[in-house]
Amino acid sequence: RTALSTAPPPEKKRWLRAYLELQRLQAPPQRRSEQPNWDYHAEIQAFSHRVQENFSLDLLKTAFVNPCYIESEEARRRQLGLDKDAVALQLQDNTALAERGLRFARAYLAQCFEGAYPELPAKGVEALVSFLTSQELVSYVAQNLSIQDLTLCRDFPAPPDVLQRTFLAVIGALLESSGPERAGIFVRDFFIPQLIGKDLFEIWKVVNPMGLLLEELTKRNISAPEPRITRQLGVNTVLPVYFVGLYCDKKILAEGPGETLLAAEEEAARVALRKLYGYTENRRPWDYSKPKEGLAAEKAISSN
Amino acid sequence: RYVRQLQRLQLLFSPTAADARGARQFVEEAAQDFARQHPDVVLYVSPRSGPGPAPVLRAEYLNGTVRDELIASKTSEEIVQLATKLANQSGLDIIRIRKPFHTDYPSVQGQWHPLTNKPSILTVQGPRLQPQ
């Protein structure tokens, strides 16, 4: 009576299979670290190989620890009733590394832009740098580098400011492990391609381009521009097109189109500013060749 | 720089089923070499005992796509080729590409618009000068 049958166990019933499949599909999404097949150490090593950088692994592991994770872990341990010593985690969080990374990234990017576009004023450089270190962009880059799987944080999916902090902490960790040159090449390779296809005045919102243009021209000792209509089409229709050209001393500076005369003049001022700052669509693409030796000292000074 | 889009490969197979023979041979012979040649891909080998579904190679990419490839009744070399093919792919969906070219700078001299080569209304047409 107690004979064990070696036949394969009967399969689950058809209706049960349907119910279990529905449960599986309706289950809330979980962190990758809670799903089967996850090895944190191997994943971190793979991450450092993927970005082709040599990290010191403890710095990298601290870079992924967020303060919200430490608080939630301590709260959980306290709830489970452990004593004081066990409650305090021996983990450092990544705020210090994130701050260092942010300062270095801003300084390096500002230096890059000042070298590449010497005519661009400080406000323009500031606008470009803050666009490149903004939450959406940094969290987008971090998501596509699988940082959202490796971060330790309280909520799932990780909010964009957590991803931004973690990515900047990774840059800080790289700065500590490999020095400012490698970190600079890393920042250049991952942030500057995000500018491709973007126009200057999409990133830098300028309210009064004409006033800015007048300031720039007085700096260069050129007389004030005189706007004239160059071409016009469909004046009496619903969709007129006016091309307004800005002339300085009877020589053409820039020409811009618009629906009304005011809009066309503003657009012409923007085109003139783009030409003056050297940020036109047909400028030379960014130079990704090896950096020269002289920049290393400047970077070291700026990062400290 | 180049970032390999394949994040991890999970090899799910059964240690006794007949169609998982190629998978078992792959694990014994070629898995370590594959892992050494691709240090940025994490290879998980998880045998699941008992009669289960067919052996599958699950590839997870950086943009979140998960692709399952059946490896039932495949030899070890075929699995190596399949794994390298997955490692060199990106995680974009495999659909028809509308055009095989793309450019971020569609125009260098400025896009043509109907007023490009027309003279502006400011050019003055004076009287024709007689040749002296």
Automatic annotation (TrEMBL), chain A:
Chief place of localization: mitochondrion
Pfam families: DSRM_MRPL44, RM44_endonuclase
Family: Belongs to the ribonuclease III family. Mitochondrion-specific ribosomal protein mL44 subfamily.
Its biological purpose: Component of the 39S subunit of mitochondrial ribosome. May have a function in the assembly/stability of nascent mitochondrial polypeptides exiting the ribosome.
GO biological process: mitochondrial translational elongation; RNA processing
Name of the protein this chain belongs to: Large ribosomal subunit protein mL44
GO cellular component annotations of the record: microprocessor complex; mitochondrial inner membrane; mitochondrial large ribosomal subunit
Signal sequence extent: none
Domain Large ribosomal subunit protein mL44 dsRNA binding: residue ranges: 204-300
Matches recorded under InterPro entries: Ribosomal_mL44_DSRM_metazoa, RM44_endonuclase, RNase_III_sf
Large ribosomal subunit protein mL44 endonuclease domain segment(s): 39-174
Keywords: Endonuclease, Hydrolase, Mitochondrion, Nuclease, Ribonucleoprotein, Ribosomal protein, RNA-binding, Transit peptide
One GO molecular-function entry: ribonuclease III activity
Compartment(s): Mitochondrion
Gene name of the encoded protein: Mrpl44
TrEMBL record, chain B:
SMART domains to which the protein is assigned, alphabetical: L51_S25_CI-B8
Name of the protein in question: Large ribosomal subunit protein mL43
Chain positions covered by the region annotation Disordered: 110-132
The entry's keywords: Mitochondrion, Ribonucleoprotein, Ribosomal protein
Biological processes annotated in GO: mitochondrial translation
Cellular component, GO annotation: mitochondrial large ribosomal subunit
Gene3D superfamilies documented for this protein: Glutaredoxin
Residue ranges of domain Ribosomal protein/NADH dehydrogenase in the record: 15-90
UniProt superkingdom: Eukaryota
Chief location bin: mitochondrion
Keyword Ribonucleoprotein: yes
Homology family: Belongs to the mitochondrion-specific ribosomal protein mL43 family.
Subcellular location: Mitochondrion
GO molecular function, one term: structural constituent of ribosome
